[in-house]
Amino acid sequence: RASPADAVVSLRAGAGGTLVLAHPIGGGLFAYRELVAALRAGVRVVGLEATEPPRSLGAVASRYAAALDGLEPLVLAGWSAGGVLAHEIACRLVELGAAAPPVVLVDAWPPTREEPEQDELLRSFLFDLSRSMGEEPPPLPRELARLPVAEALGELARERPELARAGVGDLVARYELFATNLRAFERHAPRRYDGPVHVVRPAESELVPEVWSPLARSLTVVEVPGGHYSVLRQPAVLELARAVDRVLDTDR
After folding, report:
1. Residue 70 region by backbone torsions, left for phi larger than 0, else alpha for psi between -120 and 50, else beta
2. φ and ψ at residue 79, rounded to 5 degrees
3. Is omega for the bond preceding 73 within 30 degrees of 0, making it cis?
4. Closest by alpha carbon to 167, among 177, 158, 180, 178?
5. Confidence grade of residue 3 (pLDDT, cut at 50, 70, 90)
6. Residue 156 in contact with residue 163, Cβ under 8 Å?
7. How far apart are CA 146 and CA 163, in angstroms?
8. What is the pLDDT of residues 98-146, one digit of tens each?
9. Judging by DSSP bridges, how do beta strands 193-202 and 44-48 pair with one another?
C-alpha cells in the first residue's frame, strides 16, 4: 500500500508559500503543465497524484491532508473534479488543526450524486482523454460500447493513432482509474468549508459559480477566457495563472 507522502509530487521549486494542485478525475497531473509554467517566478508548486484506486473521495482527501499537514502557508487548487477534491482536502486540513487555506476551483462543479453506467463511463473517459490531448473525441457506436472495455479500446486504438500510441494495456489501466475516481466523485457529498473559496469560471463554461455559495464561508468569482479544457492551455492559461497568482499574493 502506498504511503500518503507518495502522492505528493514536486512540480516546481520555490520559496515562501506553496501552491498545491489536486489531480482531476484521471488521477494524473499532466493537465497542469502549462499552468505551472505560466505562474509567476518563485512560486513553489506541488501536485497530488493518484497512487491507488480510491475507496471514496473523502478517504483520498484524508490521505492527502495527512501528507500536507504542516506544509504552510499554502493555497489549494484544482481543475474540474480536482477542484472538488481540493475543497474536501481543505476541510480535512482544518480538522487537523491547520489554518483554513484559500481554495481555487477552476471550472469545478459539485457532484450530481448519479451513478454512471459503463457506456457513460467509457464515453466520458474518451472525451476527457481526447480533449486533454487537444484531439477530437472518437465516436463510440452503441455496439462498441457494449463490448468489454479492453476490446472496445482495442478497436478504437486501431482507428485512432493517438490512442494506439498509448497502447491498449495503458488505456485500460487509465480507464479503470478514471472510472473508479469518477464513481467516488459522484458519490461524494461536499460540505461547507470554513475558509475562502475562489471560483474561476471560463467564459465558455456553463458553470453557475453560486452553486458553491452554500459550501464556502466566503466566495469570490473570477472570470477568465477559454473553455473547460482550453483554460489550461495557451493563451487562456495566462489569465488563469494571473488569477492564481493574485490568490497566492493575498495569502502571503
Report:
1. left
2. -105, 140
3. yes
4. 158
5. low
6. yes
7. 19
8. 999 999 999 999 997 777 788 888 999 999 988 887 788 888 888 888 8
9. unpaired
